[in-house]
TrEMBL record, chain A:
This is Molybdopterin synthase catalytic subunit. Keywords: Molybdenum cofactor biosynthesis. Belongs to the MoaE family. CDD domains: MoaE (cd00756). It comes from Aquincola tertiaricarbonis. InterPro entries: MoaE_sf, Mopterin_biosynth_MoaE.
UniProtKB/TrEMBL annotation, chain B:
The keyword Glycoprotein does not apply. The keyword Translocase does not apply. Signal peptide: none annotated. This is Molybdopterin synthase sulfur carrier subunit. Belongs to the MoaD family. The lineage of its organism: Bacteria, Pseudomonadati, Pseudomonadota, Betaproteobacteria, Burkholderiales. It comes from Aquincola tertiaricarbonis. Keywords: Nucleotide-binding. InterPro entries: Beta-grasp_dom_sf, MOCS2A, Mopterin_synth/thiamin_S_b, ThiS/MoaD-like.
Length: 180, 84
């Protein structure tokens, strides 16, 4: 199978249609017996207790054009080698997003469900810690960049993926520890 | 040699979208970061050792700041990533 048929990676401002993406992923491949798909959406609050005060009104997503696509293509190649999946589609939105909007789609086709479930989770764990995207939350109290989560590094580490994305020390401590 | 530095997210807001930097041949990522820190108080605040800054060289995530840079390299600095 040609790589172009096997994997589709798109970064776009527009919304996506899960059904259409899954249909395209399965099209013409009689060896597919399982499709696993994950959709991430904009929720109203940041997950961390410290910031869960103001509801999020708008989420802004920035990326690194060129590198983002390459990083995701590399991770799909890794998933293909590791789990023997038949196909993958990754769509990630950028720009301003409203509450409840779809942010990201990872869909994987495989012969059996085990590989599909695992590859889908692997791809999301990789994307969360290795793909250059940044979220900025807008609330009534102002806007702030979302902090990376140590839990995401831990999730990626389960697969033996490079970690060290989230700060080793809390930002406040890092600032306090700086020489004058 | 010259490397092209790019910034993203909070670093872009503080330092602009990027800048060209002259460095001695054989310089490493750590040397570039030190040269940037010396440029202005804003650079120093954002890029000082110990700050949570990630780096990519030629659009590949850099895992080791001892990586040697080549002339014309594109080097990006940005906060930990938060997509998905």
């Amino acid at each position: 199978m040609q790589r172009e048929q096997f994997q589709v990676v798109r970064i776009q401002a527009e919304d996506f249609d899960l059904s259409a993406e899954v249909a395209a992923l399965r099209a013409g491949d009689a060896g597919v017996g399982a499709v696993a798909a994950f959709v991430g959406t904009v929720r109203d609050r940041d997950g961390s207790a410290a910031q869960a005060v103001q509801p999020v009104q708008l989420l802004e997503l920035e990326h690194y054009p060129g590198m983002t696509e390459r990083a995701i293509e590399a991770m799909v190649d890794a998933a293909r080698q590791r789990f023997g999946i038949r196909g993958a589609r990754v769509v990630h939105r950028v720009g301003p997003l409203a509450l409840n909007d779809q942010i990201v789609l990872v869909a994987v086709s495989a012969a059996h469900r085990g590989e599909a479930f695992q590859a889908c989770e692997f791809l999301m764990d990789y994307l969360k810690t290795q793909a250059p995207f940044w979220k900025k939350e807008h609330t009534a109290a102002g806007a702030h960049w979302v902090d990376a989560r140590v839990a995401d590094d831990a999730a990626a580490a389960r697969w033996g993926l490079p970690t060290g994305n989230a700060p080793v020390v809390a930002p406040a401590m890092a600032t306090a520890g700086q020489p004058a | 040699m010259t490397v092209q530095v790019r910034y993203f997210a909070a670093l872009r807001e503080a330092l602009g979208s990027g800048e060209a930097v002259q460095l001695p041949a054989g310089s490493r990522v750590a040397d570039l970061r030190a040269a940037l820190v010396a440029r202005s108080p804003a650079h120093a605040e954002r890029l000082a050792p110990g700050r949570a800054v990630r780096c990519a060289v030629a659009q590949v995530m850099c895992q080791d700041e001892q990586q040697v840079l080549s002339d014309g390299a594109e080097v990006a600095f940005f906060p930990p990533v938060t997509g998905g």
